[in-house]
Specification:
- The longest helix is centred in the first third of the chain and has 66 residues.
- This protein has 396 residues and is of the alpha/beta class.
Length: 396
Amino acid sequence: MTHRRPQTASRLGHAGFALPAVLALLVALSLVGSAAAILTSTEVRVAALYNLSNRASAAANGGLEHAVAHFGVSGPEDGWPVVGSIGGYDYGVEITRDSFDFGAGQLPVSWSSAVGYNTDDDGQPVWILSSLATRGPYQSSEELRVSVGGGTFQAAAPFTSSSGMKVRGNVTISGVDASDDDSCGGDKPAVVLTDPDHDVDSGGSVEFEGDEAYADSVPPYVGHDPATAFNTPEEVLGLDPGALDGYQQTGQEFDADPPDTLSGVTYVTDDFGSNGAGSGDIDGSGVLIVHNPLYDPREHDPSHPLYDPVKAADPQYAPATLGNINKGTFNGIVIADRIDKLTGKTKIFGSVVMLRRVDDGRNVATGKTLIQYSCTAIQTSTGGLGGPRRLSWSAR
């Protein structure tokens, strides 16, 4: 006969207590799981929103890049607003003139490499590009301040040289503005030398003319200004170092497909002329640069602290020469390490700058060459040079 052991009240009590505890634990675990699921879902949604926000911001920046390229080609007046789409986002970019309130009303802002931001019209106008990208409820706004990259070159004279120069024949160098445009400050001296120890050696029927303030100088219409001593084409044009690197081409590259006329920026890193790249014709307009990027005029000047006799004797560091140009009419700016020579019936309206510092007695102009200052030619040739200058960026 089997006997059952009767359960005590204590055992029954423990069993009754365990069930609610297990249920409570299950409820707690369920709540934790639900909370974890909710948190995970929230994190996924936050990550998705963050991703969409980043994409909207990237699209707005893409719109700015589109607008900068358009600004570089068309300027601030034509073809605005710039619109497009990228990655499913639509963008539109407006342009407005930047201004600042100094307490007496809004004044337009300009920018120059010499003084930075200013309200004195010193340099180029500053423009604000405002980009808005949208996709459904998602949007992003970005702003970029820009100005024209070039156009800051102010010619000291129709011919500026960092060394002495020899001129022979029926050459005319005139600082009288051929365009009669007062925005560049009026007439200039015929020649400006950057070193007071250098001079102009002229002979034959050479004629200098220009600003009457230089009429009594010796030689007449010749001035000296150490502040105009430049070492690179970028320094001449007021551009950032390396801004013109993309235009460089060797003489061989230029000769492979020489244009009928020069236009835009022609930057040859070898000798240019009938004894080098191209021919003796410089018809056209724009900026003609003949410069060896390895050449530093200071390293070839025994009187300068940076003089390097090793480099001065090494052909790879030699100046590039603009020489034997015997015809053509060119409107704009000519920059060369060394000039030998402008001759025949060559005409240049604008400005010529020679970078070399050491006078080697070469003729820079002979024959019936005419070099005449032209404010309009200079401004036209540098209007968009170097591309738009990016000044500041902000998110809104």
